[in-house]
């Protein structure tokens, strides 16, 4: 008896330190990396650059794998996937086994494995790893998708996150005075159909988010959303094409801004993914201080790599021509458009020793070089400072008017350019045909006369 008690005691002494060695959340966090949109079947050289940045935390923002399957784009034929006359969806979901296999492939990537050894990896999902392109609450495979994402993220078997509906979660890093809270949203599990102007988060997640924002304070609060929160790209690319974003659910977005504002929480900023390019946007009229949204997309997928190399400069020109009242233009950008259409990741550096502490947020390329960035004291994200800033004539409230408020000619510049080019082409062809016809007529008449 006494012997077995001694053994127990011995085991306890052995076990306690190893239990404590679990993630030390009180360690100072000063480097956080994030990214989205990684094709598990493609080479992923970006991990080398991310490991080089040496983050303590890495955040997945969705499309962590491309789980769904894609039919070839066909305008004609039996299975048409493109155009208003299409008869089959372009994307269809993977089976549970297929999705598991894709996650295993992603996890086995040597670069990613190296990062996992060095950094705490957390994350949420977007549509392609949730199940299928643009999917919401109606997707029937979401229960097994949730299990597979949480397996991929090494979530504990008994974690409450495995028992809730959706993958939203929050983390508090750092000691008193240097705390960083990370809130990961789930923009899929409860999302109403696009164009419904319904809910993105669903009631339980809204209540949870409110508790998280009103709960214990932190010097910085990073809210991770798979889809963009600030930019409304669709307003300036429609009717050519539309992308998902919070702005497509205007009432839900307003609710988010109101909640942040009324929570009086300091230091809130958004990070997002999804769109296959990187940009830094900022909305100055959502709360009492600027709300930044730093979009990094993708780790492998990018708008420029999706077209032949000769068209890359055209993509850059189009990016530059797309009007945006929210994007932050700064001399730090590699391109004039201040968007970045090649693979990239997000890098957040906090200088806790500066007085007052400062944060630098960058988008970095495959070599780890900065392509865009902003830097400011964290204290700039404080309700009380807003008015002082305004009085001093700072750039506060520079990013207030919405995309939908742009003058018509500016807002639809891309569409006008597109349809204008087509019109010019059609008119040119028509003129050519008319010219040919009258030439032939003239010729035949001359022949008859002769
Ligand atoms: C956790 O990190 C803090 C700050 O670096 C340090 O003071 C503390 O001793 C660490 N705790 C453990 C259990 O390693
Ligand atoms: C991922 O990469 C593979 C291999 O390059 C390619 O065949 C596949 O189409 C890519 N998937 C996506 C969604 O881009
Ligand atoms: C974003 O753009 C879409 C498409 O033009 C529009 O329906 C929506 O109301 C806009 N959202 C906001 C918040 O302006």
Automatic annotation (TrEMBL):
Residues 1-21 form the signal peptide. CDD domains: MPP_PhoD. The chain crosses the membrane at residues 414-439. Pfam families: PhoD. The keyword Glycoprotein does not apply. InterPro entries: Metallo-depent_PP-like (IPR029052), PhoD-like_MPP (IPR018946), PhoD-like_sf (IPR038607). Keywords: Membrane, Signal, Transmembrane, Transmembrane helix. It comes from the Eukaryota. Residues 33-284 form the PhoD-like phosphatase metallophosphatase domain. Gene3D superfamilies: PhoD-like phosphatase. This is PhoD-like phosphatase metallophosphatase domain-containing protein. It comes from Triticum aestivum (Wheat). The lineage of its organism: Eukaryota, Viridiplantae, Streptophyta, Embryophyta, Tracheophyta.
């Amino acid at each position: 008896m006494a012997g077995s008690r001694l053994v127990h005691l011995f085991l306890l002494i052995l076990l306690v330190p190893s239990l404590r060695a679990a993630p030390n959340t009180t360690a100072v966090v000063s480097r956080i990396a994030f990214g989205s949109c990684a094709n598990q079947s493609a080479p992923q050289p970006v991990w080398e650059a991310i490991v080089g940045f040496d983050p303590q935390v890495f955040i997945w923002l969705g499309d962590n794998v491309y789980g769904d399957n894609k039919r070839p784009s066909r305008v004609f034929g039996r299975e048409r996937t493109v155009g208003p006359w299409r008869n089959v969806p372009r994307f269809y979901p993977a089976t549970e086994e297929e999705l598991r296999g894709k996650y295993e492939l992603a996890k086995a990537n040597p670069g990613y494995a190296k990062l996992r050894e060095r950094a705490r990896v957390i994350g949420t999902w977007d549509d392609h790893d949730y199940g299928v392109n643009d999917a919401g609450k109606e997707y029937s495979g979401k229960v097994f998708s949730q299990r597979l994402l949480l397996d991929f993220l090494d979530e504990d078997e008994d974690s409450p996150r495995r028992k809730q509906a959706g993958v939203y979660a929050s983390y508090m890093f750092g000691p008193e005075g240097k705390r960083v809270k990370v809130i990961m949203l789930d923009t899929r599990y409860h999302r109403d159909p696009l164009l419904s102007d319904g809910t993105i988060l669903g009631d339980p997640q809204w209540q949870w988010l409110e508790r998280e924002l009103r709960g214990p304070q932190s010097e910085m609060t990073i809210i991770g959303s798979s889809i963009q929160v600030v930019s409304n790209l669709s307003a300036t690319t429609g009717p050519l094409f539309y992308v998902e974003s919070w702005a497509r659910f205007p009432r839900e977005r307003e609710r988010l801004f109101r909640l942040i504002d009324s929570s009086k929480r300091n230091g809130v900023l958004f990070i997002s993914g999804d769109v296959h390019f990187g940009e830094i946007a900022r909305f100055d009229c959502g709360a009492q201080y600027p709300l930044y949204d730093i979009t990094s997309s993708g780790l492998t997928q990018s708008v420029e790599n999706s077209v032949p190399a000769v068209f890359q400069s055209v993509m850059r020109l189009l990016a530059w021509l797309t009007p945006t009242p929210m994007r932050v233009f700064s001399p730090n950008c590699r391109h004039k458009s201040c968007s970045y259409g090649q693979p990239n990741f997000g890098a957040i550096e906090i200088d806790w020793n500066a007085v007052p502490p400062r944060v630098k947020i960058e988008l970095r390329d495959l070599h780890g070089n900065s392509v865009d960035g902003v830097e400011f004291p964290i204290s700039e994200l404080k309700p009380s400072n807003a008015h002082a800033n305004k009085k001093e004539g700072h750039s506060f409230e520079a990013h207030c008017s919405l995309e939908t408020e742009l003058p018509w000619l500016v807002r639809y510049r891309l569409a006008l350019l597109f349809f204008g080019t087509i019109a010019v082409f059609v008119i040119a062809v028509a003129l050519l045909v008319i010219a040919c016809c009258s030439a032939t007529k003239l010729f035949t008449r001359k022949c008859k006369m002769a």
